[in-house]
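Reference record
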Amino acid sequence: MQIPQTSQAAQVTVSGSVSPTLALSPGQIAQAVVVSSGKAGENVDIQLAGKVVTIQAGVDLQRGQTIELQRTDTGDKAAFKLVSVAAIPPVLTDFRPGQTLLAEVIKMLPQQSILLALQQTGKLPVPLELDVSRLSSSFKPGQQLLVQILSSSPLNVSLQNPSLNVAETLNSQQRRLLPLVLAQPPQLQNVINALPELKSMVPVQNAVSQMWQNIRELQSVQQPANLLQAIQQSGVFLERQLLQPNPQINGDFKANLLKLAAALEGQIRQTANGQINAQNLPVEIRTALINLLNQPAALQQLPSHITNALLASGQTPAQLLTMLLAGQTPTGTAANSQQALTAQNITTQQIAQNAQLQAGVNDLARLQILLREVETAIARVQMNQLTMVREADNPAQPQVWLMDVPLRDRQQLQWMQLQLQKGSKQDSDAEEQWQVTLNLETQNLGKLRASIGLQATMVSVSLTAEDPKAVALLEQNIDILQQKLSALNLQVRQLSCHCAPVEWLTPVAQSSQTDALLDISV
């Protein structure tokens, strides 16, 4: 039935607090399900946009009824208008023994009962009240459960906690990180180069300095002990170190990246709320305007009649957005605005304020770019970690370790990529096979790759470089490598050099990237 717009029933009072993350914009109409019955004017719980909201409506509502609400916020208080109320649905009787349904705990009821919302594909959830007095388990709102139907008449069910296996959990995490992961190690050079310009941002400067000073020198990793320490501090072993008592993680790359990201986020908030003061604007609008200012190309794509109208009033799109972010309001007609913005009426103080505001916008844009680079580096480390866990969890696949090791080469950040793979034995008496791939990018020789195979004391080495001059240099000095390997009591089976493109190893195979982005069910 339709609710008249002028009736008292059309007004809905929100009795409980509404989460600010409720995904409904003002004016939007959405369906909701009544999860607790109530008379007109009484408190009633509804499930709206995935949230449980307590309301008071001017009509009687029964559990399971579907209603339509329109969000009509006034100020900071959430408000709704009741648009329609569907007829009371029939009691759900199509349960089949053996059926398993996903449910969410909506509310704890008196007399040791819980209210569940059974999920239906393509339909609104169905409320179900269960007596759990004979169960020793505890429940809480928002908890996910699996409801298995044992019998339908009378209704008898069993409750289980849904458990995701390791592969499903890792796949979900990889899908979340994939948009940030690049095909090669992230370039943090912009973060390093910005260090002299961060003197006024002490927390960020300290975080960048700590990260940079704890990165090993490129020349130092020629010593086995220093190489081992650089690998241990590359970030992929951070969580294992945290499990130890009194962990020392000041030198860990991932730990320092996380500290730097927190410092950048704090500085961004301080800059946006200080130099760019837009207290009169909602947070969502302010964020959107700041993002738009950071994309000059987007401002050039405004419709021509809007751009012409702004220019006629003496304002560019960037100037208008800057004024809005500063909490200023353009007044007067186009002619008055043009007159007010003439050179004769612009005071020295206004020029200084505009310059300070523009500097704040520039700082904010730069900080956001740096934060994006740091987030990409963190995502890369986490993806490497997940790849190693995934491989270890599957005994059918060989164990693989993949690490991106940052190195310092004077004031330049270089990357050494190391992948270790443990092969499976052919039989119980056979020696273990190891395959090591090392990628390194140098200023003089470009990208290099060393592929090393080791079984017992037998070793094979294949060197690849992109620059023909580098290949020639390696071939001239390959005897030195053979001598050093022999000094380690290793029998050299093969040594070779090649000229070919060197591709950085990625923690996600190209064939599986589309699978992680798109799941198709028929």
Remarks:
- Residues 276-280, 328-346, 510-517 have pLDDT under 50 and may be disordered.
- Residues 482 and 492 are 7 Å apart (CA to CA).
- Residues 348-393 form the longest helix (46 residues).
